[in-house]
Write a structure and sequence with these properties.
The structure holds 4 protein chains of 4 kinds. Chain A is an alpha+beta fold. In chain A, 57% of the residues lie in helices and 14% in strands. In chain A, β2 and β3 form a beta hairpin. The longest helix of chain A has 40 residues. Classes of the chains: A alpha+beta, B mainly alpha, C mainly alpha, D mainly alpha.
Chain lengths: 194, 145, 94, 112
Amino acid sequence: MKRAFTVHTVLQFIFLMVFWLLLSGHYDLFHILMGVVSALLVTAMNLRLRRFHFYREEIQQVEARLKRQFPVTLRPLRFLYYIVWLFWQIVVASLQVAYAVLSPRMPIDPSLVIFKTRLPNTSARVILGNSITLTPGTITVQLRDDEFLVHALMDVSASGILDGSLPGQVARLYEKTPGQVVGNTTIIRSKRDM
Amino acid sequence: MKTHRSNPIVSLVSRMVSPFIMMFALYVIFHGHYSPGGGFQGGTLIAAAIILVRLSEGSDTAQLQFSRSWGTPLGSLGVLIYFGTGLAAVFMGGRFLDYAALHLAHHASMSRSYGILLVEIGVGLAVTAILVSIYDNLLEGEADA
Amino acid sequence: MHHNFVYFAVLLTIIIYVPFYRVVTGPTLYDRMLCAGSIATNSMVIILLVGFMFNRIDMFIDIAMAYAGLNFIGTIAFAKYLGSTLKSKKNHGN
Amino acid sequence: MGISSIIAVILISLGTFFMAVGSIGLIRLPDFYSRAHAQGKVDTLALILIILGLMVYEGFTLNSVKLLLIVVFVALTNPTGTNALTNAAYRFGLRPWFKRDQRGQKKPGGRK
């Protein structure tokens, strides 16, 4: 666990250094040295906060592993595929909103959906939350532990949440055949239901 | 009583983005003579990155990143660097903030460049520390906003 | 080619006035902040286009990056402020 | 005009179109939550398309890598900002607009 944290820290340093090299167009010794000093400074400044969250997350993951046997390492190639897929979803989503906005009758039917997922850790849930905001028809309103509250603009059944296709894509970042990811779905369609 | 209710999405993304904003701010400070920016702008961006974590994590957890007690000493250190550079120039026979008199390098122009860099670092440090401590002092009475 | 960017920049500047209407008349504070975010995104694009028009894109990219960062921090700060003050007012009313 | 300029102009035009759609959506949609759809998705796509167009025009230089960094940053932070605002509104108790509630009073979807 300690070794994992060290690897994490070195990775952050490398990312910051690459970021610096991309920003600064000057590749002489003096500027690179300033970059190393800056990256060390920033890494050192964020070290304690990151350690706090790292161990908290680790405990959560151990619990998840004990409970559900869900692997917690991201599969990098799948992640690349996921980014391309997500871009396509953003295009579809924007076209859908454009259709809703530009057609004179405005075919919208808003509803709130509450559902639970069995994703392994916080970062997976955050990936899912932001993806829900970017994909067609839905935005994340609240995320509390396992429970998502989602606002859907059009008909919910078309949005890929109820059948679990979007959460399934996120779960597939971690596991090849995730099975059922979504459960306990509630749909609110009017003020009386709330 | 107001308590900090954490929103995991905002919290994680803020923690992820904050070091990169700091790195960008340091770039702004160190490349002040090629691109827009300098000590003040960079210092403001660092302070913004620190305040972002304070906002999303709650002030108590964010103390791990930049402690409340560092504000005054670091601010004083920044002013000291700025003033010390100026005074050193006076003692070495120039005028106040006359970087060429510092003899940091062989050429007067290089010496001026390094002198300006020192002053920028001082200004950046002072601005960062003072802005963060202003934020902390504004929250003095709150439980944990 | 550069002169084509002028048309886009002018078009985007006109588009800014559409969410600006919502900023002025928005029924809730949240609407106003949402539209302010939209205006910020729009201005970022205009900054980049202006950079291409003046052939100083290296300089304007840095400005756009700082703008993007400050836009995000501003939105988070505003959301936090709204979340805490309005909640306390509600508790006070009960 | 080379082929890259033409692609750039097409991408930037598409982006401008989506920016306009997002702005009109902010005016036309009935309540805060549905406006958040217009801001969270459409504006992000508009910015990505315009910056991709600028990258194509710029060619493969350090500047276009910086533009890519802006795209990554915005794609990460824009939905987060939208989520922060909607979450604050929901916690305050702002209720969404539902079509069912309008039945009998107004024509469905006819709200402006």
